[in-house]
Amino acid sequence: MALMINDNCEVCDACVLECPNEAISEGDPYVIDALRCTECVGEFDTPQCQLVCPVEECIVPNPDFVESRDELQLKYDSLHG
Ligand code: SF4
Ligand code: SF4
User: Fold this and answer.
1) What lines the ligand 2 site, CB under 6 Å?
2) Largest CB tally within 10 Å, which of 4, 6, 19, 72?
3) Ligand nearest 59 Cα, by number?
4) Confidence (pTM)
């Protein structure tokens, strides 16, 4: 399941550099590319963007991209060759 950023985003920029897949881009709110977000599967046990985001309930599951852990690992593998 990819994550998404909702309107609670305070445009603080903390999340962008934390993403191992370069999935987050600037905007208001910031935007997660669902085709690149693996929920950090492949690199970390926990979504790094959620860890650093200072706003509660700002980075949430994207209901349009429900994926299993195996699918997320395959996505990661295809992104990183
Ligand atoms: Fe990037 Fe991980 Fe956040 Fe997805 S969960 S946007 S891969 S930091
Ligand atoms: Fe928005 Fe949270 Fe990213 Fe800051 S860390 S830009 S509040 S999503």
Assistant:
1) 5, 9-15, 29-30, 52-53, 55, 58-59
2) 19
3) 2
4) 0.97
